[in-house]
Design a protein that fits this description.
Number of domains: 2
Bound molecules: adenosine-5'-triphosphate, iron/sulfur cluster, magnesium ion
Strand order of the largest sheet: 1-12-13-11-10-4-9-8-7
Structural class: alpha/beta
CATH architecture of the largest domain: 3-Layer(aba) Sandwich
Strand content: 15-25%
Shape: globular
CATH topology of the largest domain: Rossmann fold
CATH class of the largest domain: Alpha Beta
Length: 446
C-alpha cells in the first residue's frame, strides 16, 4: 500500500487538534525550539496518550493547547483547533487568535488540566475549599445561585409570616435573582459575540479583521451587569446577601472530594496544602480539574511522584471518571505500561517532534519508528534474564537541536538523508502514522 503523506491531520471525530505547532522559549542562552511542528488530534470519547523521555515536549504541547505557555515561551506558528460544540464542530475554533478572556471561559471549564506537580499547582496560602471553589465561582455561578435561591425559598416558606428573618430572606432572594438575570444576559451577549467570531473566522479581509478586533474588545469588557445586585455588592451590609452561595459551593466541594475518595472531606476543606499527603494533594488537583465537568481532561503525569498503590488508585479513578463524566482524556506519561493500561491511541514524541501515532495495540505489536522500538525494548520484563536494553545518549539540548531528524545522533538505523532532512509524517497503514525516512513517502519532504 502506498503511504499517504500527512499535511493536515484528519479531523474525523476530533475534539481538539494542533496543526504544525511551533513553540519556542526565548531564554538568555538562546532560543529553545521546544515544539518543532507538532500535529496531534484528540478525538471525542477516547483516552489519548502522549509519551516520550523527559524534555521531549509533552508538557509544552498541552500547555500550548491550553494557551498557558509560560514566559519566555511563545507559540510562534501553527493552529490550535477546538471542536467543543455544535457551532464549532464543523471547522473548529482556532484559538491562537482568541482573547485571554475567551480562553479563560474555556480553561477549567471545557478543558481542564491536572498539573504535573500537585505541590506547585496548589496555592500554599489558600485553604483547600477556597482553591476548589474558584472554578465554581468562575464557571458555575449561575447554577450555584439557582440552587441557593431554591434553598432559601424553602427556608422562607417554613418561617412565620411576621418574622423579620423572613423579610431578610426575601431581600436576599430578590438580590440573588437580579444577579442571576444579569449573569444570564451577559452569557447571551458572550454567546452572540462568539457565534459572530466563529462566522468571521475564515475571513482575512480588512473589514472582517476590524470587526473581529471590535468583537474581541467587547467580549473582554463583558463584566457582570450593572444591576441592583452589583451595587449591593459594594455596600458592606448588603454584601452579605451572597453568603448563602458559599454554603452551596461548600456542599458541592465536599461532595466532590468524597467522590474522589478523600476521607473526612468536611475537615479536609478547611486545611492547607502542606497539611496533606502527596496522594491527597494529587486528588485535590484532580478535584480542581473536575469541578466543572470538563469535556477534555488533560492529565500531565498525574501519578509521577506517588507510590505504587496510590498510583493505581489515581489511574482507576481517572478511568472511572472517563466512563462516567468526561468525554476525552489526554494522558501524559513516561510509563509505557500505563499507556497500555489506560489509553486507546498514543503519540510518541521525541525532542519536540511527533515520531509516531497509532492505536495502543498497533504500536505495541509493531512499532515503526526506531525511537518507539527502543522505548519498548527498554521496558523490563518479568522473566528478563539479559541486560536491559537502553537508548544510547540523551535528548538533545533544544537550543541547538540536531539538523534533519532530531533522533539521528541516537538512531541505530540512521542514513545519510537523516542528518539533513526532517522526515515527513506518513500514514503507513490506516491510523498508523510515522515520521521516519525508513518509510516510503518520507523522502518527498522539501
Ligand atoms: N519555561 C521554560 N523555559 C525554557 N525552556 C523550557 C521551559 N519550559 C520547557 N522548556 C523546554 O522545553 C522542552 C520541552 O519541555 P517539556 O516540559 O514539554 O518536557 P516534557 O516532555 O514534559 O518532560 P518531562 O517528562 O520531564 O515533564 C525542554 O527542552 C525544556 O527544557
Ligand atoms: S529518520 Fe533516520 S535517524 Fe530518524 S528515526 Fe528514521 S532512520 Fe532514524
Ligand atoms: Mg512534563
Amino acid at each position: 500500500m502506498q503511504p499517504r503523506v500527512e499535511t493536515k491531520p484528519a479531523a474525523a471525530g476530533a475534539l481538539a487538534e494542533t496543526r504544525d505547532l511551533y513553540t519556542n522559549f526565548y531564554t538568555f542562552e538562546g532560543v529553545v525550539r521546544a515544539l518543532n511542528g507538532v500535529s496531534v488530534v484528540i478525538r471525542r470519547g477516547e483516552t489519548y496518550g502522549l509519551v516520550g523521555e523527559s524534555g521531549c515536549g509533552k508538557s509544552v504541547t498541552v500547555r500550548s493547547l491550553m494557551r498557558i505557555v509560560q514566559a519566555p515561551g511563545r507559540i510562534d506558528s501553527g493552529e490550535i483547533l477546538l471542536f467543543l460544540n455544535e457551532q464549532s464542530r464543523a471547522q473548529g475554533i482556532e484559538i491562537i487568535q482568541r482573547t485571554e478572556a475567551y480562553m479563560q471561559s474555556i480553561r477549567g471549564c471545557e478543558i481542564s488540566m491536572i498539573f504535573q506537580e500537585p505541590a506547585a499547582a496548589l496555592n500554599p496560602v489558600m485553604s483547600i475549599l477556597d482553591q476548589v471553589a474558584e472554578s465554581y465561582l468562575f464557571h458555575r455561578m449561575g447554577q450555584m445561585i439557582d440552587e441557593t435561591v431554591a434553598r432559601l425559598d424553602g427556608e422562607r416558606a417554613a418561617m412565620h409570616r411576621a418574622s423579620p428573618r423572613r423579610a431578610l430572606r426575601k431581600l436576599q432572594v430578590a438580590l440573588l435573582k437580579t444577579e442571576r438575570s444579569g449573569l444570564r444576559s451577559d452569557n447571551i451577549r458572550q454567546v452572540k459575540i462568539d457565534n459572530e467570531l466563529n462566522l468571521l473566522e475564515d475571513r482575512q479581509d480588512e473589514e472582517a479583521r476590524e470587526r473581529k478586533e471590535f468583537l474581541n474588545r467587547r467580549r473582554d469588557r463583558t463584566r457582570p451587569s450593572g444591576n441592583i445586585a452589583s451595587v449591593a455588592r459594594r455596600v458592606p451590609l448588603l454584601r452579605r446577601y451572597r453568603r448563602p452561595i458559599s454554603a452551596t459551593i461548600r456542599r458541592h466541594v465536599v461532595e466532590l472530594l468524597r467522590i474522589l475518595g478523600i476521607p473526612n472531606p468536611e475537615n479536609v476543606v478547611r486545611r492547607y496544602p502542606h497539611e496533606l499527603s502527596g496522594g491527597m494533594q494529587q486528588r485535590i488537583v484532580i478535584a480542581m480539574a473536575l469541578s466543572c465537568h470538563p469535556t477534555l481532561l488533560v492529565a500531565d503525569e498525574p501519578t509521577s511522584n506517588l507510590d505504587v498503590t496510590i498510583q493505581a488508585q489515581i489511574v482507576e479513578l481517572i478511568k472511572e471518571l472517563k466512563r462516567t463524566s468526561i468525554s476525552s482524556v489526554l494522558f501524559i506519561t513516561h510509563d509505557l505500561g500505563l499507556v497500555a493500561e489506560v489509553c486507546d491511541r498514543v503519540t510518541v514524541m521525541y525532542a519536540g517532534d511527533v515520531s509516531e501515532t497509532a492505536t495502543v495495540r498497533a504500536l505495541f505489536r509493531g512499532p515503526l519508528h526506531p525511537y518507539t522500538a527502543a522505548l519498548l525494548a527498554s521496558i523490563p520484563k518479568a522473566d528478563q534474564q539479559e541486560e536491559l536494553s537502553m537508548i544510547p545518549g540523551a535528548v538533545p539540548n533544544l537550543i541547538r537541536p540536531p539538523e534533519g531528524c532530531r533522533f539521528h545522533p541516537r538512531c541505530p538505523k540512521r542514513m545519510e538523508i537523516c542528518e539533513r532532512q526532517k522526515p515527513l509524517t506518513v500514514e503507513h497503514s490506516p491510523g498508523h502514522w510515522v515520521a521516519c525516512h525508513l518509510y516510503p513517502g518520507a523522502a518527498v519532504n522539501d
